[in-house]
Amino acid sequence: MSESAITVRYAKALFSLAKEKGKLNQLKEDMELISDACSHSEEFILLLKSPVVKTSEKTNIIQLIFQEKIKELSLQFLELVIKNRREHLIPSMCRSVLTLIRKEKGIKTAVITTAQAFDQEFLDKATKILEKEMGTKVELAAKVNPNLIGGMVLRIDDKQYDASILTQLRKLKQEMLKAQL
């Protein structure tokens, strides 16, 4: 079985159990916390992937890190994943669970990429505008890419709206090259 199929199977099982127990909001918070730990700590990822560290040691470390921070259901899930030697898949399992929860709650994800960072006030206003236009809750993440020069790129689920100066310059260059032919 492929790793992506395994990831989805574990994610669906955890999602179903949390939904049955009415704990989707708690699960969402826990998965976001675990996902943040995975994305911000290279040492944590190395620990999960290490074949040298024993399963019992990994379980103890997970308990030390998360015991006071996440609910029992999420902690038991992590322990089960480690016991089944699938701990290297924890980051992708978290992403899959979060995707299922967002889908269940009708939450759209959006990423706005700009050349310069914006303050939280701007992001809050942009979120409200997107929610009004889309008629659903939106979780907006911000990224900075100085190569854009100016403008922005907005990605909502699988759609992308590119209003960056970089793209406009590329289009202009292509038109000029076509005109030369």
UniProtKB/TrEMBL annotation:
GO MF: proton-transporting ATP synthase activity, rotational mechanism
Top-rank taxon, per record: Bacteria
Cellular compartments annotated: Cell membrane; Membrane
GO cellular component, one term: plasma membrane
Major localisation: membrane
Keyword Nucleotide-binding: no
Pfam families recorded: OSCP
Keywords, sorted A to Z: ATP synthesis, Cell membrane, CF(1), Hydrogen ion transport, Ion transport, Membrane, Transport
Membrane topology: Peripheral membrane protein
NCBIfam families tied to this protein: ATP_synt_delta (TIGR01145)
Task of the protein: F(1)F(0) ATP synthase produces ATP from ADP in the presence of a proton or sodium gradient. F-type ATPases consist of two structural domains, F(1) containing the extramembraneous catalytic core and F(0) containing the membrane proton channel, linked together by a central stalk and a peripheral stalk. During catalysis, ATP synthesis in the catalytic domain of F(1) is coupled via a rotary mechanism of the central stalk subunits to proton translocation. This protein is part of the stalk that links CF(0) to CF(1). It either transmits conformational changes from CF(0) to CF(1) or is implicated in proton conduction.
Assigned protein family: Belongs to the ATPase delta chain family.
Full protein name: ATP synthase subunit delta
UniProt organism field: Mariniphaga anaerophila
Taxonomic lineage from the root: Bacteria, Pseudomonadati, Bacteroidota, Bacteroidia, Marinilabiliales
Name of the gene: atpH
